[in-house]
Amino acid sequence: MHGSPDSIRVDKWLWAARVFKTRSLASAACDGGKVDINDDAAKPARHVRAGDLIKVTLLRGRRRILKVAAVGDRRGSAAIARMLYEDLTPPEPPRARQAPPPWREPGAGRPTKRERRDIERLRGW
Fold first, then answer.
1. Are 50 and 13 in contact (CB under 8 A)?
2. Which residue stretches of the chain have pLDDT < 50?
3. Is the dihedral of CA 12, 15, 20, 22 positive or negative?
4. Under a CB-based contact definition with an 8 Å cutoff, are residues 42 and 100 in contact?
5. Domain 7-87's class?
6. pLDDT for position 110
7. Contact (CB, 8 A) for 40 and 47
8. How many CA atoms, within 13 angstroms, populate the side-chain half-sphere of residue 20?
9. In angstroms, rounded to a whole number, what is the distance separating the alpha carbons of residues 57 and 65?
10. Given this model, what pLDDT does residue 104 score?
């Protein structure tokens, strides 16, 4: 398993696939329990092969599901990185729309104190 050409360390693969900017960030994510391979927690030295399913938790709880299509240890362009995986991440639900701020005539000047409070109440401040 170690050193075979058909497998690679998960932190190195995540870096090459451009999931993380640096290999140290990928390693820290693995250590922090943010990376699962085939539904098992992954340490940075765990090897991945073509066909493995990787789940990565990113910022704000966003979760990506990637199926390893190829093993690559060199970081290339984004087009090359996209060939390393198949993205199975479901689309994000649409964000809730916020009500537009109260309409004012152009050149009407600054909002009055009452209008400012209404705007703040509308925005939830």
1. no
2. none
3. positive
4. no
5. alpha beta
6. 85
7. no
8. 21
9. 9
10. 67
What's the token pair of residue 84?
A: 């390393």
Q: Give residue 42's pLDDT.
A: 94
Is there a contact between 24 and 68 (Cβ–Cβ < 8 Å)? no
Q: How many angstroms separate the Cα of 41 from the Cα of each of 38, 55, 69, 73, 94?
A: 8, 10, 20, 21, 30
pLDDT at 33: 94
Q: Cβ(67)–Cβ(82) under 8 Å?
A: no
The dihedral sign for the CA sequence 34, 53, 20, 26: positive
Q: To which residue do tokens 């104190």 refer?
A: 113
Q: Length of the chain, please? A: 125
**Alpha-helical runs (H) found in the chain:** 10-16, 23-31, 78-82, 113-123
The number of beta carbons lying within 10 Å of the beta carbon of residue 1 is 8
Cβ within 8 Å of residue 91, ≥6 positions away: none
